[in-house]
Design goal:
The chain is α+β, with helices and mostly antiparallel strands and 348 residues long. It has 10 helices and 17 strands. The chain has helices at residues 3-12, 21-31, 122-126, 143-148, 176-191, 212-221, 266-278, 294-299, 326-341, 343-347, and strands at residues 37-40, 46-50, 58-64, 69-75, 81-86, 98-103, 106-113, 135-137, 156-159, 164-165, 170-173, 198-204, 225-233, 254-259, 284-289, 307-314, 322-325. It binds zinc ion.
Amino acid sequence: MSLSENLEKLSNAYGVTGREEEVRNLLIKLMKPYVDEITVDRLENVIGVKKGKKSSPKVMLAAHIDEIGLMVKTITKEGFLQFVKMGGIDDRILLAQKVLVHTKKGLLHGIIGSKPPHIQKEEERKKIVAYDELFIDIGAASREDAETKGVKIGDPVVFDVKYAKISDDVVIGKAFDDRVGCAIMIEVLKMLEKTDCTIYAVGTVQEEVGLRGATTSAFGIDPDVGIALDVTVAGDVPGVKEFESNMKMGKGPALTVADAGLITHPKILRLLLDVAEENKIAYQLETGLPGTTDAARISLTRQGVPSGTVSVATRYIHSPTGMLSLKDAENAAKLVAAAIQKLKAILT
Ligand code: ZN
């Protein structure tokens, strides 16, 4: 299956932070043909291993399988669901979104509602409605009715958005952060049919709430090198100054020089740059982003692990629908696969 087909499946699958089961099972299925073994560790990270030569480096690829979403906090006696946010979500994008509540009895459709604007006071209309003033309306008549439908405190809630290809190269969909990283990871495995390195392809859990899955999986794997595959903010939209973000959709994979948690190891950055030049892969260099990726935790594992991040510049991340270029994702995979083939030389 192509990267685009895999991304469609991964984007449409569900896996709010801490409830990643569905997407994990999908990743296991998609990864299976390209690895020698697959394990799920204690925190429920999924680890595909492609065995190489004993003397060659162990490489950990990390793509997080969790996605931002909501969690039911309270059910009002009228049957509305109040919620907390799982991961960084801007309150302004929540209102009027269609969502799916995952209950033990199955999926329930809902809409995020608020006090109708028509009856809001002038000042109220001007201010942002905070998430704790919003609610999910599942059409229930009462708390009992909502409970009968299967709703329980703690149920995960996802945005109800379907993947779509809107041009030859551009796609929109849910949870590109970081299902595109998962799709790239599968491509890298495909391209590395012949390699001396041992590859650990890790679908990490709970990244959005503090890089938790990467922390434990990296400790267990003890890799020689770590590479996170993730998304970054594309700043090529009106209102963004170049200094705030100079990453552009469609201009090639983004290589992190430094972000809030990681300074890409100089040897890894050099290797990625050399390989990009050799293979004529266009790339973008990014620095100074306030966020970080799984690579931040991998790099601080045990005595330290040389690590880097390769990202896809994605528009509207941490909102219900993102937009990205498939070419960027394909080139990210090519770049990482080619870099892994040359790893041994920089480590010895
Ligand atoms: Zn991410």
